[in-house]
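> call design_seq(struct)
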């Protein structure tokens, strides 16, 4: 894969406009190459040039450097300088560097000047965006630190751990953090220890123990959303409490929210680090292309400035990532590093070959069953029998409900395919649990499975109606649609961790929230599902009639 395609594929979609314009700069280099080729052809067509060098390249007439490879003199190195990059760090300036092209006397120099001007604009744009994001990340780190102070104090309030009060009374008053004066260093308030320090004796541990101050809870307000209709009605009828109770339920909710906040913060830091690495690599690639086209050595001078900037030296982001991982492992994973890092460092979901295999298998079976139904109707002359019209108008609407479900899933699978193709982060938008979101193959797989069940039930129903032996038992024939509904409901409500349990329960929860909307906090996924259902309200009376016929 070429770097341009890989560069576009690894972009963060929300930051697409802030990345380096690699394709635009590449087009400028192609224009420079065309101009240099035209100049070379014009020089080669000159009659004196043809007689002089007899078709040899100009490099054949360069002074011989010797077999021992003696280094070039300083004066020659100075003559071979192509550009000078001047950092601009004074206040009030939006530019961070300015490049001056030194070979203005050569033909086509104006194109190279334009290239370095655009290159400086792209570098200044990327660096400005990166510094703004780093500043925002530092502010968010301060807010998370305050939340962690409150969480630790709340744990002390709820759990009431035993410790030596005499050795910690003085430390307790000193542990109150003045967040206004700490600035960006507030993240270091949470005292973490290295593995070597954990190997000290138990006695030294208790001596160095400094509990967090509980006084911070006086300025804390806990907002716990009601999770049941009963709690919603209770908060609506009874006025909310003025002071938090600091119960274990509230502590659990606060821990869950902070865990989610740390996960989002860690993902933002990783995206920022990937943004830095990707742009530095893009500048390196474009400068190497320039050196290759112009046969010069200008990349080293420019890349030195890029690597010395905060874009190339992302130590602040790396230190924040390490701190976040250490804090998360200690406070939310009970010291299990592998478990905590597995939760933080989310990997892309791997596509399984068996899903594609069964998708093709069920799709082929659906086509075969549909063809069998058509052949069965024509070979048995069902349309020519007495009461055939009434029978068809009764039997096929019973199964149109499943066709409605399959059609919905096919459309949703198509949306998922386009979202992934256009790099829309739909798992984040719908708040799916990390790693449990369904791709378009999984959705098509479920739709094809339901279609196989529905078409097999239709075929068996037709065969039982036309068979003289089974025709004596009409009750069994009429139970086929009900049995199909029972199988689909059994799969949907199955409590075992099979057939995408997380996605099934997410759908059930969303349906229940749509029904009891005033009694629950409505999320975007609930609103999206309700909007899909209300947009097809004209089909719902027919569907309800079909459900009544089935039952």
């Amino acid at each position: 894969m070429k770097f341009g395609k890989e560069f576009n594929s690894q972009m963060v979609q929300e930051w697409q406009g802030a990345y380096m314009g690699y394709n635009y700069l590449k087009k400028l280099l192609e224009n420079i190459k065309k101009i240099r080729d035209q100049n070379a052809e014009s020089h080669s067509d000159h009659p004196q040039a043809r007689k002089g060098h007899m078709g040899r390249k100009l490099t054949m007439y360069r002074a011989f450097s010797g077999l021992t490879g003696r280094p070039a003199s300083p004066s020659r190195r100075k003559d071979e300088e192509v550009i000078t990059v001047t950092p601009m760090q004074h206040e009030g300036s939006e530019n961070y560097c300015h490049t001056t092209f030194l070979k203005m006397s050569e033909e086509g120099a104006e194109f190279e000047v334009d290239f370095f001007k655009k290159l400086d604009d792209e570098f200044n744009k990327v660096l400005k965006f990166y510094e703004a994001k780093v500043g925002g990340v530092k502010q968010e780190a301060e807010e998370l630190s305050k939340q962690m102070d409150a969480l630790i104090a709340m744990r002390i309030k709820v759990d009431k751990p035993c410790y030596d009060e005499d050795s910690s009374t003085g430390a307790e008053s000193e542990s109150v953090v003045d967040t206004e004066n700490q600035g960006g260093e507030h993240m270091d308030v949470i005292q973490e220890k290295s593995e070597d320090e954990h190997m000290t004796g138990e006695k030294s541990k208790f001596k160095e123990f400094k509990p967090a101050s509980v006084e911070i809870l006086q300025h804390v307000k806990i907002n716990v959303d009601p999770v049941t209709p009963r709690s919603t009605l209770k908060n609506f009828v009874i006025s909310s409490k003025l002071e938090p109770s600091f119960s274990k339920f509230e502590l659990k909710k606060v821990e869950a929210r902070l865990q989610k906040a740390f996960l989002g913060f860690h993902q933002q830091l990783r995206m920022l680090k990937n943004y830095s690495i990707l742009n530095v690599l893009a500048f390196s690639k474009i400068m190497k292309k320039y050196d290759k086209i112009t046969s010069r050595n200008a990349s080293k001078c420019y890349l030195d400035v890029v690597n010395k900037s905060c874009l190339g030296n992302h130590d602040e982001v790396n230190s924040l990532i390490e701190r976040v991982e250490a804090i998360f492992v200690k406070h939310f994973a009970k010291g299990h590093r592998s478990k905590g890092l597995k939760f933080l460092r989310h990997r892309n979901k791997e596509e399984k070959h068996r899903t594609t295999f069964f998708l093709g298998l069920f799709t082929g079976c659906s086509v075969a069953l549909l063809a069998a139904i058509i052949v069965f109707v024509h070979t048995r002359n069902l349309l020519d029998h007495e009461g055939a019209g009434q029978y068809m108008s009764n039997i096929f609407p019973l199964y149109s409900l499943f066709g409605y479900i399959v059609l919905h899933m096919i459309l949703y699978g198509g949306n998922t395919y386009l979202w992934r193709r256009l790099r829309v982060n739909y798992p984040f938008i719908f708040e799916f649990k990390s790693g449990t979101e369904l791709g378009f193959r999984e959705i098509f797989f479920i739709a094809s499975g339901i279609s196989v069940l529905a078409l097999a039930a239709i075929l068996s129903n037709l065969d039982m109606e036309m068979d003289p032996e089974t025709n004596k038992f009409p009750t069994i024939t009429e139970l086929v649609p009900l049995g199909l509904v029972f199988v689909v409901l059994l799969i949907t409500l199955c409590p075992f961790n099979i057939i995408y349990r997380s996605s099934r329960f997410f759908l059930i929860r969303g349906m229940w929230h749509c029904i009891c909307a005033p009694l629950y906090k409505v999320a975007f996924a609930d609103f999206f599902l309700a909007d899909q259902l209300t947009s097809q309200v004209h089909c719902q009376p027919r569907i309800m009639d079909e459900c009544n016929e089935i039952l």
